[in-house]
Amino acid sequence: MKIDRRRLEQSIEELGRIGQTPRGGLTxxxxxxxxxxxxxxxxxxxxxxxxxxxxxxxxxxxxxxxxEAALPPVIMGSHVDSVPTGGRYxxxxxxxxxxxxxxxxxxxxxxxxxxxxxxxxxxxxxARFQPAMIASGVMAGKIALxxxxxxxxKDGIRLVDELERIGYLGAEPCVARPFRAYLELHIEQGxxxxxxxxxxxxxxxxxxxxxxxxxxxxVQDHAGPTPMRIRHDALVAAAEVVAGVRRIASEIGGDLxxxxxxxxxxxNIVNAIPGRVTLSIDMxxxxxxxxxxxxDRLEPIVRDACEREGVRYELEHYxxxxxxxxxxxxxxxxxxxxxAAGARHRRIRSGAGHDAQYMxxxxxxxxxxxxxxxxxxxxxxxxxxxxxxDYGARTLLLAALDLAGRA
Length: 407
Ligand code: GLV
Ligand code: MN
Ligand code: MN
Prior knowledge:
By secondary structure, this protein is of the alpha+beta class. The protein has 2 domains: about 5-205 and about 325-405, Aminopeptidase (3-Layer(aba) Sandwich), CATH 3.40.630.10; about 210-320, Alpha-Beta Plaits (2-Layer Sandwich), CATH 3.30.70. It has 12 helices and 16 strands. Strands 1, 2, 3, 4, 5, 6, 14, 15 and 16 form a 9-stranded mixed β-sheet that branches. α3 (about 90-105) packs across α12, α8 packs antiparallel against α9 (about 290-310) and α10 crosses α12 (about 385-405). The protein is elongated, with a radius of gyration of 22 Å. Bound molecules: glyoxylic acid and manganese (II) ion (2 copies). One manganese (II) ion binds next to loops.
């Protein structure tokens, strides 16, 4: 069975134009006007493909293709929000390959026993509203609906108000429901598949992820008349923390990765001593225990840096997702599908978070990876050759068909 490569390429092109950056990347932050246009485009394609579309309280979109029996669905999902100056593959490719699978089933007039559902999750990236994967988190019962609704972007705008504004505050309860399997195709976002010359990764699980927020309160003052000896500079303490966070990874080693990616400096002008800095800390490791050790090291680094500068701080560990192995049967189904698709493949672990991680908490889940050129993502250079996408989409098709069962 083949997928229509030309049609898939055209969809990637069309959806990629919504929120396109001048350099061919994508800025389509969750629940912005661009996100609404991307969603509207997807919903139109889902209806054209004969899916019955519903939207839940978190703005998650589901399009269901009926099965022969009233059985739990096989869900194929991902997201259409992006990071700022991101690429047109992260998330997008998963929903478009899911759409292509549905279109192929339609073309071939294949009936399945279980329904097959295409899902689009809200705010997967966590770029606009924190944490990431907030909507699958609510669905899995790991994040309270109320907390998700009250998440605010950097301008203080609430998630629920934006859902309403763009017309995606649905009526369906956002709760766990039984599913036969959850499958997510995604770009690898790392270099391993490309290095090995492989088209498909059979994902065995996702690393543990911890996000923290540090606010440092210094004393805002003039950059000229204030002698060095009486300064309390929040940014100087923050700089020590940034270097310290990097050091945690080099000292603990192994697969631990640590990142300070967001720094908000107040007042952020040339001639004032920074009075306040807020910064993000992202730490990931395949082992939960290693992440605990990393967090234990973070606390003294922050304390010492702030003591030296004579500044106050608040450190908040506000989001944690445990290391998540995927369901053995689903992983095996993906491996069989990759083989049947003729794709050169290997088993692989994800260093990025995905909605599949929360879905794995409430049902059998697995993922299909396709390579990322130069291992790059969350940037405009993100790219995957269509030949590899074709193998990935066929793997998704065959795995979905295997799990849904032919009627
Ligand atoms: C999502 O892109 C994440 O891994 O942070
Ligand atoms: Mn993604
Ligand atoms: Mn991403």
